[in-house]
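Narrative of activities, Objective 1.

The group set out to show that a structural description can be obtained from nothing but a protein's sequence at a throughput compatible with the screening campaign. Below is one input-output pair from the validation batch, recorded exactly as produced.
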Amino acid sequence: MRISYLMIEFGQTGGSMVLYKFMDKLCERGYEVFAITPNERVKWRPGFSKVVIERLNERRSLKTKSYYLGLKIINKSKLLEQIAKLALDFRFSPIKKIQRLTQKLIENWISSDITISTHCFTAYANYALMDKSIPIYHMQSYEELFFSEEIFQKAARLTYYLPLIQIANSCWLLDKIKEKTGSTPFLLNPGIDISIFYPRVNIDKKYNDLSEHIIFSYYSPAKLKDWDGAVEAMKIVFKKLGDKQVKWIVFGGMPPSTPEIPIKFIGKIFGDSLAEMYSKAHVVFMNSWYESFPLPPIEAMACGTAVVTTRLGTEDYAYDEKNSLVIPPRRPELLADAIIRLINQPSFASQLAKNGVETAQKFTWEKSIDHLEEILHQVGENNRKNRFVDGFV
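Output recorded for this entry:
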């Protein structure tokens, strides 16, 4: 079976990493997989995700335009910025920009049994190709929320009404789509690599040896990640725990300006390096306004660390007071209270951490790819039956 993934770009977001892993696993199981971007198509092979990440890291370190096996890497934020600028100029229609993107994806597409959209703007190309391939829309977030301009919100919203077979990556997203459109997508949670994300230190020992309290979190410039709320919460933490040694370590990017509190930025890290940091930390927090199966909280759970996270989008694995502390978004004072509670109650934090490990081990990649195969076979069989009924075969 040949499967084509329609992608905006090759990036290093959690969503991109998940897609790469699904493609790796499909290749391992004998599927012929292609990644289609507006610039080119690339035939995937098992373990190809590691090569992609290495090339992206190389591009970032060299700070130069990079090509990947002839595949030009484009920057999604710049692409969306260009679209937004065109929208401000009435001489150009932003819809025409999406049309150009769609046309490029169609031109690079290779005849496939199944074509999978991975972004709202790639869904239109899949719709155009649906007479030639079984169309699946693998949704990894409610993307309308990513845009501030109304026209792009509507362009994203319309994709949920296209006659594509839908996959939602979280129960929150599934419910959201069902509420908006009346359709019920397949549920396909991502997996985590428990050969990488596992406790690197003894959990009991870590929470008994509290000469220093390490708090670990992620920075992104996206508003929904609520960096300002994280800073406000940590100011409260430092103020109330002034008599204790607290270290705040942040991975990801770096804000244009940093607040006057102790922060150590360590940049983008992945794999073993990230797992080591999760394992050393006493508290990992993520305080986004909304997510759809975010990876950092469950990766931290897998590494044996107490987690503080927010709704929405973590319902699949984060259970308040059982394996994590779950707070409402946009409440920095509650985030601070939760962090302080875990620092002041190490035995409770240790128990949450142990329960988190048990939870995370249920979300393996083998289970996820098994489920994806079930979905692919089901939609393939349904398509065959529908064609027979309609008299096409």
